[in-house]
Amino acid sequence: MTFTTKRAAVSGLALVGAAALLAGCAAAPEESTEGSGEVLDFLPCMVSDAGGFEDKSFNQLGFEGLQAAADELGVEYKAVESAAETDYASNLSSLVDQGCNTIVTVGFLLAPAALESALANPDIAYVSIDDTVDQDFDGTTDAENIEPIIFDTAQAAFLAGYLSAGVSQTGVVGTFGGMNIPTVSIFMDGFAQGVDFYNSENGTAVKVLGWDRAAGDGSFTGGFEANDGARQIAQGLIDQNVDVLLPVGGPIYQSAAAAITDSGREIALIGVDADVYVTDPSVGPLLLTSILKGIDVGVHEAIVEAGNGNFDPTPFVGTLENEGVGIAPFHDWEEKVPAELASKLDDLKAQIVSGDIEVESYLAQ
């Protein structure tokens, strides 16, 4: 599968952090919100995945990109939330009926509904976050009016895994996800690869619980809600002596944070998508780092391009090289991370970019 790195604006995860500063006060609209400035004849729209626009993570980053683009273009926008997979098709149909010119679908699970809508409405531009919309698996997007924006987060997760192994005192780290789909498991697998690499370099035997690379399976909640089920899975990992925990799936980190707090132990939490230290200060003291995806920057540029008549369906994949993915600062953990370990992460990033270290993923070229 061939992708390009055409979007220079994505090479700036510092922008992700800056946008996230507004996250605490960002409210999700049910219908439309008006931008400012000169109004174009252009209506950008968005459909969320489960979790909603206030998940302080994946959907929220997409929504912030929509807001920023609409403001820059001086147009209104429409955004609708999906509570379940059964909402996808009807939400898309509603936006088509309301005259949307560009529709962003936030999430891997929306791909089938996005494809059906795109094929039925070839004059509308679609932007698919986290899926190439290649339902026939021939290596190309299945509709000419869909632009995929995807992220090889295994590369950044590799760094987080190496870091976790380096700071672990118990020699046991853990991860769990919302659903076993590629955009979730890519974090977990990259994390495990980083731990394995640390072990091979340092002669250690740090264990990873919650993900089995050989089986391609692990611990999953079955959804993306911060509920008792997610908390029980986190507790089960904590009971096995983990002292670093990576929950992958939007709000489920909140359940992990609650379990960590109740344990009374020093257990580091790793966030995903956004810098969770910024988007959710309530869990800030627990966070070792976050594995970042430049969703907001990618959405912003795709909508601005479309609004200016320059929609480009060429797929984009975020990597460490173009800074579409990365890891957040250590924040409150800064003094607990040895300088030598922090410096090593910089070296590892350079080796991944150069190709000297190959991180396996379904998006690896």
UniProtKB/TrEMBL annotation:
Pull one GO CC term from this UniProt entry. plasma membrane
One Pfam entry for this protein is: Bmp
State the signal peptide span.
Answer: 1-28
What are the UniProt keywords, alphabetically? Cell membrane, Lipoprotein, Membrane, Signal
Q: Does the keyword Membrane apply?
A: yes
Spell out the subcellular localization from the entry: Cell membrane
Q: Where are the transmembrane segments?
A: none
The record, for InterPro entries, names:
BMP_lipoprotein (IPR050957), Peripla_BP_I (IPR028082), PnrA-like (IPR003760)
Question: What does the sequence similarity comment in the record state about its family?
Answer: Belongs to the BMP lipoprotein family.
Matching PANTHER family: ABC TRANSPORTER GUANOSINE-BINDING PROTEIN NUPN, TRANSCRIPTIONAL ACTIVATOR PROTEIN MED
Name of the molecule in the record? BMP family ABC transporter substrate-binding protein
